[in-house]
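re the bet — no i am not wrong, look at it urself. input seq straight from the record:
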Amino acid sequence: MYSVIKLLRPHQYIKNGFVLLGPLFAHQWSTQTLTEAALAFFSFCCMASAVYILNDIMDIDADREHPIKRNRPLPSGEVSLSLAKLLLLGMVTGSILLSLAVSLWVTLFVSIYFVMNILYSWRLKHVVILDVFIISAGFMLRILSGTVGLGIAPSAWLLLCGLMVTLFLGFSKRRAELLMLENSDGSSNLTRKVLDDYSPAVLEQFISVTAACTVLSFGLYTMSPQTIALHGTEDLIYTLPFVIYGIFRYLFLLHNKAKGNDTAKDLLTDWHLLGTVLAWVVTTLWVLA
């Protein structure tokens, strides 16, 4: 059972919190809306696990040659291939059923997410820059599920902030992989092939641009007249320091603690980062409420 749980990667479910941003910032906090948001959240949890299982099945031979990934449940033999395929089918089915209970829009978005990740695993993960935009698109589909999927008009600011922060995390992940490659004496089997097309200087520029855009877009959102009118307060600006500190902390972990390969794990294991996110959530709820 422990190996099955490892295969499903439940710690990654925290990324599906992007589904909840729509109701939060649209002030749609009714029981029905929150219930539908929860169903959409769990739908993406199931589909995310399905994607991880699919990736492990497709990469099983390569993972067996990897010094770290060979310890995963599938390449190590802890979980059989037949069981993995059964779990894959069950997760996809569960995701579709949960999404149908919300709306056809959510079903469409989770289906696109699954197809997009198939294309990503097959070829798009080898295309420089586009690979990170595909990762970001997965988060944007979560945001759209929590807005359009629930009958909420998506805010342009929310979409812009979501795009910038997910691009920042995506390029940071590539930088972390490149750092691991540099520290492994150039052993290319430790990381993905697309890193041959990236360079430290280029990635640092991408990270700087997306980090700055994240801070600016969220800061402008908090001071926007539409935002102040919607929430009836100008105090949302006081949540900006948490965003800035979180980005700086993540960059510190990336360069000084060899982190950045697994954003969800980094968040759950670094008390500074976790505390910052929790403080941002609590402060945002307090201001909006």
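see?? The chain has 14 helices and no strands. told u. also The mean pLDDT is 92. so pay up
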